[in-house]
Every structure is written in C-alpha cells, then in structure tokens.
Write a structure and sequence with these properties.
6% strand, 15 helices, two-stranded antiparallel ribbon
Length: 325
Amino acid sequence: MLRPLILALALLPAAATNRPPPADPLTATIQTEDADRFAALFAKTKGKPTAAQLKRDYLDKGSFGIGVFTPGRIGDADRLARAIAANPTRYAQAIRTCLPAAKAATADLRSIYLGLRGALPDAKLPQVYIVFGAGNSGGTAGPGAQVLGLEVLCRLSPTPEKLRQTLRHFFAHETVHAIQEDAGMTLARDPLLTAILVEGAADFIAQLVTGEEPDAARAAWATPREAELWRQMQADIALTRSLTDKDDPDEGSPEAKAYARWIGNYSTPPAGWPPELGYWMGLRIWQRYYAAAPDKHAALRAMLAVRDPRAILAAGTYKRRGGSL
C-alpha cells in the first residue's frame, strides 16, 4: 500500500473515539502526563519494567494520546517491554534530556498555534501528546490529536536545541496534516502528485507561520536544479497516475521507483539527492499557486483539501524566466 506521509494521516482507533476538544492557542499545553507516568515507572523499576507493570501503570491509565498511539505502534505491553529491554539506555536518555526539553516547548507551541489560527481561522487545532512507545514511531497525526513518540524523537534529535527544532516542525507541519484530515483530504487519486501537494502544503503553511525554511540544505541543493527536477517529476507523476493508495506495486517496478524518488525515502534517497525532495517540489508548486491567487485565504483552504491536484499543478507550474519549461 502506498503510504506517502512519514507520519501517516491516521484514522483514530476504536479505543479512542472521544475526540478531545480543540486546543486554544492562548492556553495550549503539551500533554506529558503519559510520559511522566512512564518516567516514574522506569525509575521505580530501575529501567526494567515488566509487561504487567507497563500494562497496569502506563497503558491502562493512558490518555487519549495513548489510545491513538497503541494500535500499530506500541502494540501491547509485551511488545513495549521487549523494546525497553532491548535498549534501556535510549529510554533513559529520552527521560533525562528530552522530556524536560519537551515540557519547555509550550511557548513554541502557543506561538505556532497562534500563527495557524491567523492563517486558518476555522481549523480545529489538535491537542499535542508526548508518550513513550516501542521505538518504532516518532508520532502520528489524527483528528483532534498529535501524538509524539519521545524515545524516537530523542534518538533523532538528542540535544535540547535539536529537539526544539524538531518539535517546532511537528507543531507546524504535522499539525497541518491533522487539519487536512479534518478537511476531508484523500490520497486515493493520483497518489504521487497528491502526496507531493499534501506534503508541500504542510511545508508552505509551516513556513508561513514560523518564517523558517523547512529544510535549508534541501532547498539550497534543489533550487539551481529546479528545471531538471520538474521534468523528472512530471514524468514520474504520469507513470504513477493510474495507481491508487491501495495499490502495492513491486518494489523494483518502474512505478514504485518513480514514487520512491520523491516521497517516503528519508533513509534511502536516490543517489546524490537529498531525502524527501517531493516536499520541496510541493512547496514550490504552492508558492507559485499562492502568489497568483487573488484570495489568499481561499488558497490556504485549497492546501487543506487538495480537491483537484491537476488544476493545482497547472496553476503552480514551473516556468523559466521568460516562458514555460
């Protein structure tokens, strides 16, 4: 199955049907009660909690965030216990260094949410939960909730400074994905083009509200190569156009290679390319679309639903100075 989002737009599981109220940007708080409870259990057991203890003292007492994060990620108490036993140092580091840093990020969350409220006044901003998982997911977005797996984020961003930047990315980019799901965005048609537009929209809105380039190194590499990248992207979109999000082409097939050239290749980018270049291509499409739009608020709403990918592509097409590509 094609899964273009690194943090998949997840439908809430049956165990978590009571959607939390939308966050108020002025009072938004990073929900760390699950992480605090895990840290207390980890300390009490000297880093060796049993499955029974994890079930009783962590999972069974979990918040809405734990309910979202358990299916497909934590799995169950046995799986979590095995993950902790396999690498207790990772969890200890996350508790010691990254949990305090996450708690200190409330001001960033409120600032970014205020920006999102200004840009998208009708959007329901998700609550943000910090949890500990089984070492296999940095987080997921779903209606009303954004749930972050701290032990994974801490491995990727092991200092308070790096974690702050990672969290700012989640508060902006990944929150847009939660809002997109509320807007009824679907990945069923034209999957590569839609995935590029979905990720590019999240990067565009994140850049709008933070004033920060989502990936400066990627942008520096891609900008002088934009014409050739555009030609390759158009060819790959045409090749994958007949696929749907339920298709699972063979890994070595031309369609799979075309898709993976742009999306879902964080650890395995094409030789010589930066990873996830589809994000940047989508950002550039939306920059041109937004610049040409007479109604900027309508343009932002279009980024949430992505109703007509081909029309968006046409409106945001790349042109050399003096004419079309």
